[in-house]
Amino acid sequence: MSQAEQQRKQAGPGGSSAGAAEAPASPAEQILSSWIAADPVSLELLEKARRIAATNSTVLIQGESGVGKELLACVIHYLGAGRDEPLVKIDCASLPRELMESELFGYERGAFTGAVQMKRGRLELAGAGTVVLDEVATLTPNMQAKLLRVLEEKRFERLGATRPITLAARIVALTNADLEQAVEKHTFRQDLFYRLNVLPLVVPPLRQRRGDIGPLVEHFLAHLTELHCRPTLKVSSAARTLLESYEYPGNVRELRNLLERALVQCQGAEITPADLPDRVLQSSPRSMTLEELERAYIAEVLDATRGKKGRAAEILGISRKTLLEKRKRYGLD
């Protein structure tokens, strides 16, 4: 279980009375339980995010596509003091450039042709919450300048207005681009980079936090079996070894997608290598660590003994207590 999920359970609503239906999870609970942190790298990242959440400073989250930057931004929001305030997301890459300014700042009635009534911008709608600027590197030079001014002065005006509005929300910027390189190429303002880079976070690719793969597999399968109305599925030890050795150029998003494909194709009670895409089967094997080898062997023995712990411990040459400890350590419960 991730530390975020443990916190959610500890800080969540009180237990329901016997026989009462469990209340549906709130958006905050869903977000916090979705951030899976088992690898030491992810646990360190989560601890940094928890410290950042206690502030209201600007955050810059960088990382490859599919690593979970937006989810981490949501985790920071829901761990912070403004968790009950709005969480407003803006996809800078998909919004038409001509609409970006009016979407961000809002406008007064009559500010331009078609502005028949006043509209609040997303910076204003966020209140004292969080504004997530996804793919901030795609902003035009003009919008970069306007965003810089907002960050420096902590205020802005609706289009066509003269009365400034105080910025109360925290800004969290996300990008899969190398902003320092973009600054060198003069495609991103250096002064804006420094304004955004107050509290930097880098989400490592999944291949650099392999300890998360097993827990992520279980997390996604639990969600996907419910989504597709399928009974609980297991993952064979051979399939698990392949999943934990694959490089994941698409990161966590790719893992979820290939698990959904495997679940739909699976005809039995467990996912096997035959259910995995060719790119996983044909990927070059990497050298496994001693811990990975031990985990794979224990999983294989447990599969062979159908979960009989005493017999498995005997085959492994360890005590039942040691087996239980290793099962817990490797997430084989």
| CATH architectural designation of the largest domain | 3-Layer(aba) Sandwich
Mean pLDDT across every amino acid position: 88
How large a portion of the residues is in β-strands, by DSSP E?
5-15%
User: Which outline best applies?
Assistant: elongated
Strand order of the largest sheet: 2-5-8-1-9
Query: Radius of gyration, Cα only, in angstroms?
Result: 24 Å
In CATH, the homologous superfamily of the largest domain goes by the name: P-loop containing nucleotide triphosphate hydrolases
CATH topology of the largest domain: Rossmann fold
Element order: H for helix, E for strand = HHHEHEHEEHEHEEEHHEHEHHEHHHH
Unreliable parts: 1-20
| Largest beta-sheet characterization | 5 strands, parallel
Backbone structural class: alpha/beta
Q: What is the number of strand segments?
A: 11
Return the domain count: 2
**CATH class term of the largest domain:** Alpha Beta
Number of helices: 16
Q: What is the terminal-to-terminal distance?
A: 11 Å
